[in-house]
């Protein structure tokens, strides 16, 4: 007894299984994690080293090289990319995909900890982070007020922060845009000099009093008591009354040489919403959470908080990713419903009852598919849902073939039960074989290496799980339902739709096939010409790995002249905002001066603090179409092209793994001057291309710094240590953090010792700064050191320990990065470079290499051999294999033609479409070839068997193709460029393949017929 026999004869058991599958699938659908985009978890670990006052060259020698050498010894390193600036180095360590992310993080931490004693002692901090996809904020709320104090705004923001932190599914609730309050100790250095108190004594007194060291515990009798010491400041008065000197019996208190008060730290990050002063509250979501249920928890909190605000503060929930996800999933859900209606319409030739049997297979297959998808830990996101919608047109294939064959047996006079069992048994092996080939076609996408593979993995898994489920359903539940629900036919020719379709087939297809069989050479030559013509279209449509986002959001980066102050940067950014205020297409714009906008898009991290940089996050109406967004982007690009005070870049968000820019050219070499000259030449070449936009060269401009050159011999003679000079200068210019003060309600404030703000910011004032020696004698800084101007590069980059400079560029709208590279690469190759200097492409070109490198080729080769093995197992002859595979080029004709007609480039998602198309084509071809073989084994002549099989299998093949096209049509019309190219390729390929393969496959069978004895 086979599976179908068991299902039909034990219908009670089958019915229970039917209900169980439906219930489990529904529960899975309701409980699965939901997210907007796939959450890739890259084995990437940025190491940020802060070493204030250190030049890039010194940072490179003292910090970066030791760390890189140590980390490079670890196993499975893919690349180490380092960016070195003044006082900051970010070393980005990337391991090969497939390693254990947590284990590698611990390895990096262990190596850095073992190295700390070899690094400079006065490094401020070393932070090792793990790139986490859940760090992307799902919520951004702005508290807006033009007249509330910073203290009032921060108090309200902290209250909201406290409430949001109680939501179990949220994490990293952070505030940005308001300076922290601190306890400021403004030292009067001239008073300290007058008292002849060494500066390190003053600082040591403050620091020692700010420390709270637990006293431990002691036992008295049968009880244990904690010992509390009296350390830690309890009030500002205690700080003011700190004893800093007790020489010669005279006590000197801190308040005699300093002013102590609460003050705000120097502004480093200014935020506004729609031009009005704002404080931003951001929140991210924990991994595995359902964004819809998370929103249901925080939405009431935000609403209630908004209603409790004072009149002078307004709350704007201007970014809520849950709303975007809901909108996108609703759109795809509507596409899904439309697809089901179209599928139902295409099944009309089978009759209402047969159509309903097939339609029942859809929810059951999807229910099983969702269970499988959940088992692979894949969330419901835009790509996994696309996979489910794509599978909609495929998962009915098996059921259509089974039901159509049962209907044919019923028309031949068999009973319902007998027809269900025998008809299904007749095609069980071909159905399993076709499913296997389809799964194998999508299999390489599951094992794609690197970030691109991780990003799209949910799509092929959704297809594989659904199609595999559909095969199980079609061989068990469908025969059971058919045996109970279908009717025996009075008319052996079927219903009116089927009879009409048969007449059309007899009048057209049958005649065309006979002509083709009489002229096989001409038929194949015609098909070959069509295929050759379609290949010409590939270079015309171009290639772009991942498309731009369709969301009505984008960024404006304002790049001021190097070393512009925050105050001046704010003034310039205000001019840009004034222009945006007038634009009716913009709903919100969030301004960040001195820093990037908190991360709200999965592949665009926040830009670190940089006074000469501002970023404006633009939001249009949520329903705005991509065409309108592109129009606005072009309008703003033209508007700001001649902006005199800054370079303004209007940048759209890109899909796929993060890249530094669409075009990025790295020039490698050791000498910075030589690299700078070469970078100018690369910049010139890119500038000459009409397609290049926003060209950036890191070494284009050198920065100017003040260099304090200490006369160490003279300083030692006068009893002054180099560290004392460094400490005094830092205290006067930036301040030193000495500890923490906790007030009566538990709020912590940094204790910062500095000089009165602005006193030593001028060059002449800095020269007159006094430094105390060990005896407390004040010595002018100009006697100990000279102050000179020094130029140096803004950034030094390393790639796998090698120095490089990068020149990056975006592209004009409608221009692909590969088109620009095709123009500039020959010129780059012609550049004369010194020995040891060379260039490499990164950006999109590097992503393409990562996506389609050696690992991908290996997976493809394995897949091809599996493909061949399954077909050989099915047909037991290489001739049958060749006949089946001959249909693959026929789908390429329609796929590339429809891409060209719709204006879409070849892309990663389109390649997925072509790979899936190959599996679908082979699936349909197997059914035709297998049926022809069956007829020949029954004694039917070759020519007659070919013609009969072609006519009899034409209906199920056409129906399966039409249902697939109907299911894919809403996706093809979807404005999301991450989705539509896949559907366009499949629809175009199915049209050309369905038409041509019904002719080419019989012709190939006639030319190379398998021997009957091998079948």
Notable characteristics:
nine-stranded antiparallel β-sheet; alpha+beta; 5 domains; Alpha-Beta Plaits; elongated; 1015 residues
Termini separation: 24 Å
CATH domain class name of the largest domain: Mainly Alpha
Helix content: 40-55%
Strand content: 15-25%
CATH homologous superfamily assignment of the largest domain: Multidrug efflux transporter AcrB transmembrane domain
Average residue pLDDT: 87
Radius of gyration: 36 Å
Query: How many domains?
Result: 5
CATH fold-level name of the largest domain: Multidrug efflux transporter AcrB transmembrane fold
Largest sheet: 9 strands, antiparallel
CATH architecture of the largest domain: Up-down Bundle
Count of individual helical segments: 34
pLDDT < 50 stretches: none
Report the principal-axis shape. elongated
Structural class comes to alpha+beta
Number of extended strands: 30
